[in-house]
Amino acid sequence: MKQGYDVVIVGGAVIGSAVAYFLAANPDFKGSVLVVEMDPTYAKSSTSLSSSSIRNQFSNPINVRISQFGTEFIRNFADIMQVGSDRPALAFHEGGYLFLANTEEQAQTLRENHAVQRACGADVVLWQRDEVAAAFPHLNADDILLASYGRSGEGWFNNTGLMYGFKNKARSLGVDYVTDEVVAIGRQGGKITDVTLKSGAVISAGVLVNASGPRAALTARMAGLDVPVEPRKRTLFVFDCAQSPEGSATVNQGRLPLMIDPSGVFCRPEGRFFLTGCPPVEDPCSDWDDFEPRYDEFEEIIWPALAARSPAFEAIKAVNQWAGHYDFNTLDHNLVVGPHPEVKNFIFANGFSGHGLQQGPAAGRGVAELVVYGGFQTLDLSEVGYERIVENRPFLEKAVI
């Protein structure tokens, strides 16, 4: 580790490591990069504890295009991230997403979202009740008014594989990683000057990137700044199914999609099991170290909804569960990517609100472009910049799970 770096990234999970990779891989970038990560095991990181899925079914074209880039990047990940003989394939299962609507309001939202998705070239179709029943015979579709199904480009993959692939490639390209914690950030007027680590080291910084996930607000406050991001707990359950419906679909080689029930409960295959979760009834800010699962959600919310949706889910048993944290943007539940308008060498990459894995490649590329060129070169992410935080102007996205 040197005494100074052109770019210091606070947080080394998927977002921080994506930024590091895109910087180091850019031939126009000649600088040095340091990634500071407090826990190299990543045991409690949002990356490691996520449901590791990707979808193109959003309502805002920016989010659609962010995920379209993510899909292509994940498909080609092994080739792009190869280091020597190591090719980190991500086992990408393109099972698709299936959104179900049983009210006219939900159906109208799907129609409006679909128009945006199709305009962006996403491979998404709208289905009527009989088409849903024909494609997925195990489902009870009697109450369904409309469904939206992603035929390709959506699914789930190896979450830690994505993170470690970025990290290993970045290190092979000369990025330094240090196991430490940023405890202070030096600032002179409108410029970040350095970071102080828990070990006592003071490292000068040309640019600082805040990629500290649910702790983003803590990092920002060290610089006298603010970002409306806080940890919100989400519990995931893995369940066994006495009569598994996997393989029963008449589309996509029998594979079931990630289904979002009108109740908000979601469910997808996970090997021989299924992975499920639901929006919490109450959603307070969580303690930074609170990872206790909300066990009652399975019996009180998830099982009744799934049993009503499919006879195959009447006899299920939870076999594992864990809780992770969303880096929840309290303004509008969407990513914040861009510099602070007054402290321009402090760049935010925060507030992904459960979409960090799928949005990591585009966010990492975007931040790298800001550092190298002073602006976005490929996908313009200006609408999700920090200025909207200052102006209290939410970025509209209707398809938030």
Helix content: 25-40%
CATH topology of the largest domain: FAD/NAD(P)-binding domain
In N-to-C order, the SSE pattern is EHEEHHEHEHEEHEEEEHEEEEHEEEHH
Number of helices: 10
Rg value: 21 Å
Characterize the overall form.
globular
Essential attributes:
membrane; 401 residues; 8-stranded mixed beta sheet; 18 strands; D-Amino Acid Oxidase, Chain A, domain 2; alpha/beta; FAD/NAD-bd_sf; transmembrane helix; 27% helix; FAD-binding oxidoreductase; 10 helices; oxidoreductase
Description:
It is a single chain. The chain is of the alpha/beta class and 401 residues long. It has two domains: 4-52 and 159-229 and 331-391, FAD/NAD(P)-binding domain; 97-152 and 231-327, D-Amino Acid Oxidase, subunit A, domain 2 (D-Amino Acid Oxidase, Chain A, domain 2, 2-Layer Sandwich), CATH 3.30.9. It is 27% helix and 26% strand. The protein contains ten helices and 18 strands. It has helices at 14-24, 61-75, 77-80, 104-119, 129-135, 159-172, 216-222, 296-309, 356-373, 387-390, and strands at 4-10, 33-37, 53-54, 97-101, 124-127, 146-150, 155-156, 176-179, 182-188, 191-197, 202-210, 229-241, 258-260, 266-270, 273-277, 316-329, 336-339, 346-350. Strands 1, 2, 8, 9, 10, 11, 17 and 18 form an eight-stranded mixed beta sheet that branches. The chain has an eight-stranded mixed beta sheet with strand order 5-6-4-13-14-15-12-16, sandwiched between helices. A two-stranded antiparallel sheet has the order 3-7. Helix 2 (61-75) packs across helix 9. The longest helix is centred in the last third of the chain and has 18 residues, at 356-373. The radius of gyration is 21 Å and the shape is globular. The chain starts with a strand and ends in an 11-residue tail after the last helix. Keywords: Membrane, Oxidoreductase, Transmembrane, Transmembrane helix. GO terms for molecular function: oxidoreductase activity. InterPro entries: FAD-dep_OxRdtase (IPR006076), FAD/NAD-bd_sf (IPR036188).
